[in-house]
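Long-time lurker. I teach an intro course on protein structure, and each term I like to show students one example going from raw sequence to a predicted 3D structure in token notation. This year I'd like something fresh instead of my usual example. Would anyone be willing to generate the tokens for the chain below so I can use it in lecture? Attribution to the forum is fine with me.
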Amino acid sequence: MEDLRRAIGRSHPATVRIVDRLVGLGLVERRRAGGGPAVALTATASGRKRAREILAVRRGVLADALAGLQPHEDEVLTMLLERALTRLADVPPESLTICRLCDKGRCRRADCPVVRSLAAAGEDLPPPTVL
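-- Reply from a regular --
Happy to contribute to a lecture. Here you go:
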């Protein structure tokens, strides 16, 4: 819950209300996270399906926007964006919000400049999300 709160830049009460709505919609479920009051949030099958749909729409928009690039321009753009993401990952982890709508599949393949940068800095990485 705290990781989500930081990622979306909301207060704890606002994050709880958002999670309540997601639970009510059947997209997320709460699970105990060890002892104490900690709660782990897990996407339900419906939640994972919805996330895949959102990522597919985003991929389509980006594909349309980048369709006119030549292959070498695509490579240059990728290099520049990865450099920018690496720089953004240099901020303190508690202010890191750049991964909110990320395609988590790249994280699992260790093909993400943010994950590489955080790992190189010795930061604890969140567990990969399964979509």
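Some talking points for your students: Residues 1-67 form a domain with the Arc Repressor Mutant, subunit A fold (CATH 1.10.10). Helices lie at 2-8, 12-24, 45-66, 71-88, 104-108, 113-120.
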